[in-house]
């Protein structure tokens, strides 16, 4: 009998129990000058120039915003080169050759607690904007735009669910740096003038529940913050699901959560807010999961933004055996983007890289079992959308509301015919704009 499936096999045990390894001094970093939201840029430095940590070296241009590009090491500007971005595309990068001195730019400084307590919403927004903080769970949406909302917010939700299989970097981040998470949340609450917050985790993450509650009681007793245990189904980390199960609020598709008095941030983004407000520092490091069945020693690594994944593969003792070809997934296995090259660079929004032995699966004809329909959290008809893509029927794609797809990958995961259904729906979304 065909039925709804919201469970996926989990591989977090490969990395979750290990302390985070630190790899913070690569010989060079490669800073992406383009990303999924910014196609054009200006570069303010040239080959041979010396730069410091946190220095603005260029500006990315988005459709309705701009992003400063910051150096993540001190050193010398190298050449422009194309490298893979987490979107799966090769984009322009600038190399910075590390001088290993970790010299901070003059713009990086610590604010006192008293200074921070006097910051207004507009002042916090300007700091976050200048530091180019974006959603670090993978969305890449500018954080300053969310913090600048004029809607009345009742509750801030920190999303620490991390429901993708294999990924455990947020888990280790909370386990090892709960104070930074709490301080970032405190600054967010201050900016939005909110007196209530929720930290949402999966119910299976018992150590996090105990640690967070202890830290909140000892360090943040002045804040009204609760830890909510949500379900273990996939995609529980989808923001709509988080709000539903943590607060009982159902946000209709296409509507902003702020209209319902709620706003959400990834746990890594909260730490980014802390670094920006306390240290006036952009995101120069991040927790990162390096794993997969082709890697000898999967683990979480604290890395410098701009680090080559090839170096991280070597840090994990390389590949298990000589493989003709590996499958490199940037992001989680359900929602990430794959390539057959490990010439990938860690960006601010790259949560993980999963390297698997590349096994070719033969795609069989659809048997119309309905598994994808039953399992779709957005209540779509994936196969019908796929058929419309094959016919290039944009009217049907729109009528089937392909634009509502959250690209969670469940339709492809449950497909008994091994059809890459999600890829077809991604194409439909591109075709209908």
- For the termini, the CA-CA separation is 37 Å
Structural class by helix and strand composition: alpha/beta
Mean pLDDT: 92
Please state the overall shape, judged from the principal axes of the Cα atoms.
globular
Task: Please name the CATH architecture of the largest domain.
Answer: Beta Barrel
Number of helices: 14
According to DSSP, the number of beta strands is 17
Low-confidence stretches: none
**CATH class assignment of the largest domain:** Mainly Beta
Largest sheet: 6 strands, mixed
Q: Please give the radius of gyration in angstroms.
A: 22 Å
Could you say what the CATH topology of the largest domain is called?
OB fold (Dihydrolipoamide Acetyltransferase, E2P)
Count of spatially separate domains: 3
- Quick one: CATH superfamily of the largest domain? RNA polymerase II/Efflux pump adaptor protein, barrel-sandwich hybrid domain
Strand content: 15-25%
The largest beta-sheet arranges its strands as 1-14-13-17-15-16
Please give the share of residues in helix.
25-40%
What does the secondary structure layout of this molecule look like, with pairings?
Blueprint: E1 21-23, E2 28-32, E3 38-43, E4 50-51, E5 56-62, E6 66-70, E7 75-84, E8 90-98, H1 113-117, H2 121-130, H3 143-147, E9 155-159, H4 169-176, H5 178-192, E10 197-202, H6 206-219, E11 225-230, H7 239-247, E12 262-266, H8 267-279, E13 285-291, E14 299-304, H9 309-315, E15 326-330, E16 337-339, E17 352-357, H10 371-375, H11 382-391, H12 394-399, H13 410-414, H14 421-432
Parallel strand pairs: 1-14, 9-10, 9-12, 10-11, 13-17
Antiparallel strand pairs: 2-8, 3-5, 4-7, 5-6, 7-8, 13-14, 15-16, 15-17
């Amino acid at each position: 009998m065909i039925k709804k499936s919201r469970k996926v096999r989990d591989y977090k045990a490969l990395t979750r129990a290990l302390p985070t390894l630190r790899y913070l001094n690569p010989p060079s970093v490669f800073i992406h000058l383009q990303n999924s939201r910014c196609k054009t840029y200006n570069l303010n430095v040239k080959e041979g120039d010396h730069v410091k940590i946190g220095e603005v070296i260029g500006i990315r241009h988005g459709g309705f915003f701009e992003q400063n590009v910051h150096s993540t090491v001190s050193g010398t500007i190298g050449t422009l080169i194309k490298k893979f971005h987490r979107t799966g595309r090769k984009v322009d990068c600038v190399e910075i050759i590390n001088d290993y001195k970790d010299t901070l730019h003059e713009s990086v400084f610590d604010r006192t607690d008293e200074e921070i307590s006097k910051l207004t919403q507009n002042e916090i927004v300007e700091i976050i904007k200048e530091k180019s903080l974006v959603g670090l769970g993978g969305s890449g949406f500018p954080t300053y735009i969310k913090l600048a909302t004029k809607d009345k917010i009742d509750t801030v939700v920190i999303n620490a669910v991390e429901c993708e299989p294999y990924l455990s970097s947020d888990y280790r981040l909370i386990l090892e740096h709960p104070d930074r998470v709490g301080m970032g949340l405190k600054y967010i609450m201050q900016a939005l003038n909110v007196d209530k917050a929720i930290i949402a985790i999966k119910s299976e993450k018992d150590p996090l529940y105990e640690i967070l509650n202890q830290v909140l009681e000892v360090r943040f007793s002045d804040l009204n913050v609760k830890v909510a245990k949500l379900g273990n189904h996939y995609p529980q980390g989808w923001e709509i699901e988080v709000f539903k199960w943590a607060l009982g609020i159902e946000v209709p598709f296409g509507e902003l959560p702020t209209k319902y008095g709620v706003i959400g941030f990834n746990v890594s983004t909260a730490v980014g807010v802390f670094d920006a407000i306390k240290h006036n520092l952009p995101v120069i490091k991040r927790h990162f999961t390096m794993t997969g069945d082709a890697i000898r020693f999967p683990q979480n690594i604290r890395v410098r933004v701009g680090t080559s994944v090839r170096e991280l593969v070597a840090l994990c003792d390389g590949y298990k055996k000589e493989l003709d070809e590996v499958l490199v997934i940037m992001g989680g296995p359900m929602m990430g983007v794959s390539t057959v090259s490990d010439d990938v660079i860690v960006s601010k929004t790259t949560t993980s890289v999963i390297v698997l032995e590349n096994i070719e699966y033969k795609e069989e004809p659809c048997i119309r079992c309905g598994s994808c329909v039953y399992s779709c959290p957005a209540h779509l008809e994936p196969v019908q959308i796929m058929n419309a893509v094959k016919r290039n029927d944009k009217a049907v794609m729109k009528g089937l509301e392909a634009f509502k797809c959250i690209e969670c990958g469940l339709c492809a995961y449950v497909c008994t015919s091994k059809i890459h259904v999600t890829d077809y729906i991604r194409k439909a979304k591109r075709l209908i704009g």
